[in-house]
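Intended use. Records like the one below are meant for learning the mapping from a protein sequence to its folded structure. Do not use them to infer anything beyond what is encoded.
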Amino acid sequence: MGMLATAADYCSAIEEAVGPDDLCAAIAAIALDLGFDHFALTHHVDIRLAARSSIRLHNYPDDWVEFFDHNRLAVSDPVHRASHVTSVGFTWANLPRLITMTPGDQRILALARKQGLGEGFTVPAHVPGEARGSCSFASRAGRPLPRAVLPLAQLAGAFAFEGARRMWRAAELGPEPHPVLTDRQRDCLIWVARGKSDWEISRIVGISQETVVRHIKQARERYGLDKRTSLLMRTLFDGTISFTDIFRR
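Structure written out for the chain above:
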């Protein structure tokens, strides 16, 4: 019960954040409460090339961040690469079990320790249609990892990334809510995604072919799009339909 109550508290703190600075402070407090000294929540992209559309919040040592950005490590960093091959959190000590570590990877980890970052735990974040990301919690060099709280850190990292993602998307897309499709429009769109023709959809759903065409056309108009493929991408991106909808029979 204690862990569930704590997880709920963490989720509330993230949801109540009103801006990036507020969210950063909330995640830093959560990291400290878990027994970590640092956190880094980020998309795995070159921040200098995609600063406006990319998420990054952290309280890592400044010298390490400067080195990281200068050497464009966001894509090649071993921790980030390891997060691309798993969907659950992992300790940095387990990196060799997830990826082949190169001498350069070992140097990066050694430099991180020199800058004050010791052991860590990283929670991957994979959202279809978006850049890959992660939320990492780290102990300062020489301090043991608080292993007893790692299941809670998994939940906290997932909550934190989703909170940041929603905040960034709201800033990018503006206050306008995304379009809402009718149930019938959504049904027709799912069958389009499954590769069915308008005639086949009409037989499956039990409406005329002309009505199927109209539903898809109206769905495109709600999103302001000309092509069905663009509509599929947008609705996957905003959660109107999911890959589960498409592949479920």
